Amino acid sequence: AQSVTQLDSQVSVSEGAPVLLRCNYSSSVPPYLFWYVQYPNQGLQLLLKYTSGTTLVKGINGFEAEFKKSETSFHLRKASAHVSDAAEYFCAVSDTVPETAGQLNTNLLRC
């Protein structure tokens, strides 16, 4: 079984400030990890994913996340927030197929 926990249900940041959305996972096998974003009145879109190899993953719009096995974390970061980043962000984990996200959790980011 696998699960994710997002530690901040809502995050408010000022324009230009750094963004950190925290995600911890639990998995009995090497995990595939995902971040999705849902902008207002739009569908989910994949922001980035970790499958194996390089632990620092760069995504769209300047976001990145680092897989830290020792901390069971996959926190999402951006150096400088923009008002257009205001959205819901979903962390997900899967232990099988990389294209299939397992349990979803959510952060709401307000800019």
From TrEMBL:
Residues 2-105 form the Ig-like domain. InterPro entries: Ig-like_dom, Ig-like_dom_sf, Ig-like_fold, Ig_sub, Ig_V-set, TCR_variable_region. SMART domains: IG, IGv. One of its GO terms (cellular component) is T cell receptor complex. Keywords: Adaptive immunity, Immunity, Immunoglobulin domain, Receptor, Signal, T cell receptor. Pfam families: V-set (PF07686). The keyword Signal applies. SUPFAM superfamilies: Immunoglobulin. GO terms for biological process: adaptive immune response. The keyword Kinase does not apply. PANTHER family: T CELL RECEPTOR ALPHA VARIABLE 8-4, T-CELL RECEPTOR ALPHA CHAIN V REGION. This is Ig-like domain-containing protein. The lineage of its organism: Eukaryota, Metazoa, Chordata, Craniata, Vertebrata.
